[in-house]
Amino acid sequence: MQIVRDQRKVSLVLGSGGARGITHIGVIQYLVEQGYVIDEIVGCSIGALVGAAYACDRVGELGEWMRTLTKAQVFRLMDFSNPRYGLLKGARILTTLHQVFDDVNIEDLPLKYTAVATDLEKEEEVLFFSGSIYDAIRASIAIPGVFTGVHYADRFLVDGGVLNPVPVNHVSKKDNIVIAVNLDGVPMKEIGMTAKLNPVGLLQESYYAMRRRLSTLSLACYPPDYTITVPHDSAGIWDFHRSNELIDMGYNLAQQALKA
After folding, report:
1. pLDDT surpasses 90 at 198
2. Where is this motif: DGA/G (predicted)?
3. Active site residues
């Protein structure tokens, strides 16, 4: 049976990828300008954070704040932890976010919102669709080795992108247009550069290659109507001081993908 889609309602899937996820703000700006109604958001890691800001009707304010960030301000957001458990606690970032939007219960939001985290011990995805939106964000952004993991309801949770960098399989509104933002696009790096990397660089590039394959498989198994793809090397994990450029990039990539 053919599915008749509502041509204006959107289920938006926002992937993980550190500062590259600031492009999500530009994508949302473009969709809203074009008259699309985003009534479902599924996000992991930075996608869960930006999606939460939109669900709380504060994504514009988040974008304005991000555009002002400098390298020094980004560094001041880093609350260093015991390196045995993770480089950063993450509390300072969430405290600062309270200046942009307040904590609310997910079930009280005006749209369907799902944040994705990973139970590292059971090696399975954990979905947040009720309870504190800040608890959901904190669990979903817990990049292993960077942010300390989260103990939640007898589980040990880390970044949702560990198992599912672009969680299109968790869209529930099947009659909506499904738009996914994949932050693990093919990099723009020069051919042959990988062979010149040191061991740490090679390890990092190997990890990124695995993420790209996971994203590709997820999008192939659960194909959205539109995929907006951000090149993997368009920004480093901490390049939040480039938010002005990244928001504009997201806007332009969304325009290209939907017009195509």
Report:
1. no
2. 159-161
3. 45, 159
